[in-house]
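<given_protein>
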Amino acid sequence: MQLPRFSRVAVILACTILAPAAIGVLVLAFAVAWAYPGLPSIEALTDYQPKIPLRVYSADNHLIGEFGEERRNLVTFAEVPTVLKQAILAAEDDRFYQHGGVDTIGVLRAAMSNITSPGRQQGASTITMQVARNFFISSEKTYTRKFYEALLAFRIEASLSKDKIFEIYINQIFLGQRAYGFASAAQIYFGKELRAISPAEAAMLAGLPKAPSAFNPVVNPKRARSRQQYILGRMLALGYLTAEQHAIAAKEALVVKREANDFPLKADHVAEMARQLVFERFAEETYTRGLRVYTTILKSDQEAAHVALRRGVLDYERRHGYRGPEAFVELKTGDDEELDDALQEYGDSEDLYAGVVLDASSKAVKVYRRGGETAQVTGDGLKFAANALSDKVQPNRRIRRGAIIRILKDEKGTWSILQLPEVEGAFVAVSPADGAVKALVGGFDFGVNKFNHVTQAWRQPGSSFKPFIYSGSLEKGLTPSTVINDAPIFIDPATTGGQLWEPKNYDGKYDGPMRMRQALAKSKNLVSIRILQQITPQYAQDYVTRFGFDADKHPAYLTMALGAGSVTPWQMVGAYSVFANGGYRVNPYIVSRITDDGGKVLAEAKPVRAGDESTRVLDARNAFIMTSMMNDVTKYGTAARASALLKRGDLAGKTGTTNDHVDAWFAGFQATQVGIAWIGFDQPKKLGGQETGGVAALPIWISYMQRALKGVPETMLPMPEGIINVGGEIYYREYAPGENSVQSLGLGDGTPEGDKKADEVRNQLF
């Protein structure tokens, strides 16, 4: 029986159409059957253990640093705010909970779009397919890769719940700025915990997976904003946002952090010290294992130190004049993009912002800041740079259109012109009870200069070293009331190890015979030299090692009396702790414990504590008398501002100014805190004739202690046994005025016979 002509045509057409389709299905089935068994195991997902960076915390649990290629904070699905989940679905895969790993509708939609608009290719990757790609497959754009990606997506969907897949995606996806996962991105871009982000911020973050570089709000704020607005529109269309919520989110001005390492607590040098210590023990595991390092610093103390040091350095800059703009750029269009490009090489130094001058006169300077803000500097804000606004100044020092300058906003919102400092500084504070570091600032700006001036800067201590010479003299029988002549002295080269030496007091004045207590308070150089002559440089060189100093850094010459050796602030804070705690040597330390990501303690500090007699390096009487003498320094001497401003009677310390005013120090303490402040140039040069330790370094110490000692009661060391008070002065019992004491020879008793004997003794000893 022969089919009708129409039927034969239909059969032929059906075979023509269906045969290739059937062949395609068979080929596809064969490909799936061949490829599926060879797909990688998804154990990496079912036992998800991502790389977690090293995190460094303060003692009171504030994050101060993070190290590792992948900055990631793990969160559970329940911890992710609903608005972020909705933003991600709107941006990446709104049918995620309906499809089985591959969105057929999405594939067809993308295919049609690619046919009708070949210039704008669309993908159809689901969240599950992106998870597959991130873990197992390269990101090359080929049909083979897509095929494997789809197969793997089916396998993942068969093994894990939708919420678990979504959770892995939220934690694993790369979002720019070394951020992996949305929790890390929220911290890096907005400085917020994930639970605190707004719908506008959620939409901005959700726009990043598509192209982390192109839609990075730090690098490309305009494109990021455009992508964010698109996602907010999608959230409105999908019913995730009401019209009112959408309107508010669309208008919200986002504050994006510019610095990737900008942590709430500024302690970059501390974090780096902790990283180095951990790496010595855990090597490359340091950056992937999720280790947590808890330092000894306290948030309030660290903040006080950070503010004090930056203020002290900037105050120095203000005293020494404006050097001129950092650079000049040629402005053509003057639009935001050109201006942002001009500032690309000039990072902000925290609140000291880089800016491009748009217009300048002697009355006002208009400055563009990165990100589109314009600042107007007028009035007192121009004073520091007034000379650079004159028409008479050299062109390379004049503030004019296109100049790159620095501006600072005060607490009242007023802008002023400043400059990046050339001078550097350091501050460190410890507890003398066990050496735990409470605050450490290794320099003005870690981003500009990573050199840690607390631990790495070997500098001359100047007069801040004198207390250790005085301490040695107490062991040799001298006392606070021993009278020594403050008069010119000439030292021959054989004694100094160099050339003829004619030392002078820093103020050029000589006060004649005076008690040692008075000489230390006034920082008399000639008295210190005569003391060292008496006890001998060789004795002093050995003696100072008990405080933690290196003998080879302090050659046995009379110049040691003026602090001509080399120390670090780290050594100084440990050395002054011996006085503060009554004579015990404690070692400064900065890491208290290291744990794994689950909190298991892997290593813990075992500090030496004051009070253990096995650690005593100084007679308690010596520590008490030296503290008493340095207490006078802060009341009546070169650091009298300390007691006056802090209004406390339990402060002690010593200023330090080196030869030619190259280094300025203040080393001071109270029973609960020892602090060391230093100011100087990395390449040593003169700070300026008026820049003594009392002018440049002491204000940093005072500023810190005003906060660190707030609410701390006045505390004085108890007087130890073996000390007696005679006529208002304190002595070792065996060296008190009497037949066998130095005072019995007539040094300072005020009688005619005593004066005659004093002259004889001075001729013999000094």
